[in-house]
Amino acid sequence: MTSTDTTRPIEILPSVLTADYSKLGEACVALEAGGVDRIHWDVMDGNFVPNLSFGADIIASTRPLIDLPFEAHLMVTEPTWILESMVAAGCSRITVHAEACTHLHRTLGRIRELGAAAGVALNPGTPAEVVADVLDLTELILVMTVNPGFGGQSYLASMEPKIARIRSMIDASGFAIDLEVDGGIGPATIAAATSAGANAFVAGSAMFRDPEGFAHATAELRTIAESADKR
Ligand code: DX5
Ligand code: ZN
């Protein structure tokens, strides 16, 4: 195995699930001005998870407003039905849940064929090992640190050994893959997730509930993650 450096930059990724939907476009503009790295769209179908959120048309309507990349986190039972429309809506990273993909290998290949980066998300109950044989087909592994469906839930510190196992798998593979965490990430939890091996952090409540605004929330999260002990 080569000793390729798999270190990835720290990224702060706001989930707009927590936004005021009557001002979604304004929120995207303000998040970009606040210094975030990408917009994280939580796409929910009311079936894979109990909640229903945005589809491609809503995402596309905000696309012309900002330059930041968009990523779609598909919490849907049939992700293959909407891959094309998500890419057409302007999402350059598409993450599917391993639990929703009978043919995960094929689905990741399809995302890449469409010209997007491919990600795999794992529910808390899904073991790290399900990504072992698709590392060559993914740019991003997303470890859920809550059960998906809603913002504002508590961070599951019990996921940290899984984050660490995936970090080791990525390092051993030599591929440049982001390790993202999603759920309950905020100033009190981001250091532990970083030390476990994550480099990309989705934040909904921590971003939208910071009374000092997006720039403050982003800088605070980034500073804590950058100064945390790394594996
Ligand atoms: C949960 C979503 C998350 C969530 C994050 O299903 O995937 O992106 O909205 O929200 P917080 O940061 O509030 O846990
Ligand atoms: Zn998400």
TrEMBL record:
Keyword flag Isomerase: yes
Q: Is Ribosomal protein set as a keyword in this record?
A: no
Q: Name one GO molecular function term.
A: metal ion binding
Q: Which reaction does it catalyse?
A: D-ribulose 5-phosphate = D-xylulose 5-phosphate
* Family under the similarity heading: Belongs to the ribulose-phosphate 3-epimerase family.
Enumerate the Gene3D superfamilies for this protein.
Aldolase class I
GO CC terms for this protein? cytoplasm
This protein's cofactor list reads: Zn(2+); Mn(2+); Fe(2+); Co(2+)
Pfam families referenced in this protein's UniProt entry, alphabetically: Ribul_P_3_epim
Q: Which UniProt keywords apply?
A: Isomerase, Metal-binding
Q: What is this protein called?
A: ribulose-phosphate 3-epimerase
What EC number(s) is this enzyme filed under? 5.1.3.1
* Gene Ontology biological process: carbohydrate metabolic process; pentose-phosphate shunt
